[in-house]
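For reproducibility, we list the full input for the nicotinamide-adenine-dinucleotide complex.
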Amino acid sequence: MTKVCVIGQGYVGLTISVFAAEHFYVVGFDLNQSLVDSLNSAQSHIEGIPSSKLEKLIQSGRYLATTDPKDIEDSEIVVIAVPTPLDVARKPDLSFIDAACKVIAANINRPILIVNESTSFPGTIRNFIKPVIEKYSKQKFDHMYAISPERVDPGREDFNQKNTPRLYAGLTPEATARTRDFYSTFCDNLVEVSSPEVAEAAKLFENTFRQVNIALVNELAQISHALGIDVRETLDAAGTKPYGFMKFAPSAGVGGHCIPVDPSYLADVAEKVGVEATFIKRANEVNLDMPKYIAGRIEKDNEGSLKGKKVLVVGVAYKPNVADTRETPAELLIGALEDLGAVVSWNDSVVGTWHGSASSPLADADIAVVVTKHDAVAAEDILKSAPYVFDTTGKVKGAVQL
Ligand SMILES: NC(=O)c1ccc[n+]([C@@H]2O[C@H](COP(=O)([O-])OP(=O)(O)OC[C@H]3O[C@@H](n4cnc5c(N)ncnc54)[C@H](O)[C@@H]3O)[C@@H](O)[C@H]2O)c1
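The corresponding predicted structure, in tokenized form, follows.
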């Protein structure tokens, strides 16, 4: 049976591993030993990947998680699914991809297909991944290189690996064909594009489109409040137009690994080719300022001072029904509230533990601010937690709305 290695067993890597393991023998390589141990004892850490499915694959000998680079040997296909964050200067940080390339180079002993699913700027597979692997390989191999950016939306049930259209392109026609053969075993809708750069750029633009439109409605929320009109009613009204309009919702800002991060990859590559990505820069500013704007609104509503007030931030995951807190706007909101003298705690039963401390009870606050509303949390319980509740989600009727 063809052996596939997936480097990185996070949201993307584990998802792809589980789907691929229906057709191939999959080795999931990760540096995190405790994650690997829990995966091998059939504990899934991803919403949408049931532990029972993992158990079935382990029992049938189709899936193994490992931290041992030697287990990468003899793979015929390697998929890279490692983080691509921003560094402290909010510039692309390819250090995880670099490390993944080095471990592939050191452990692959024949020509194979190498596919990158990590999100990065156009030119990453051609000008970064291929050269690094070639530089660190013990022998010269003519590997096939391709890109197939991941579009998984964790927690979503209507679109998954099988029915979400998947872009792909190889550096050579053979790489493109081999990539199609691989993904067609578990994806129904493959979309070939003319170059890896097009696929890489499309992925970045998908998330840039969302980031810019979210910033636009966040600005509209501020304009609407100043005008004394309801932003959500305005958006619902605009949404009755059957064409030429797409509705986005205002919020405390953007979170997760993609929307706050990917546009900066596009802005960075734009700068390198002499184009200023002005929309991306402005959208970043608007979204990153939302927590400060919200803290200011709450202060104004509470006799102009938050000094010593007990403020409970409800929902610190970056979106409903997931435990993921990466880049959550709750973090900036807590900082903005503390800057105004509030004593801040947080509640999120889905996240449970965050920054080493446990979720506080949903009760006994002077002020509650809803950043994310999980389905499991009742709006009535949120309303009972404090005499003043500010809702950024539009889901807690009776609270003060953004
Ligand atoms: N999460 C999403 O919804 C999503 C969607 C589309 C694309 N992406 C992109 O996919 C990529 C992976 O994202 P993710 O959400 O799966 O990240 P993640 O943080 O959930 O998982 C990444 C995993 O890679 C492991 N890792 C890091 N360096 C490694 C190395 N050198 N070798 C082996 N394992 C290593 C980490 O331990 C971790 O388990 C990123 O580029 C991201 O932008 C993510």
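The chain has a mean pLDDT of 96. Residues 7-13, 29-32, 35, 81-84, 96, 99-100, 103, 117-119, 150-152, 154, 257-258 surround nicotinamide-adenine-dinucleotide (CB under 6 Å). Both points were considered when choosing residues for closer inspection.
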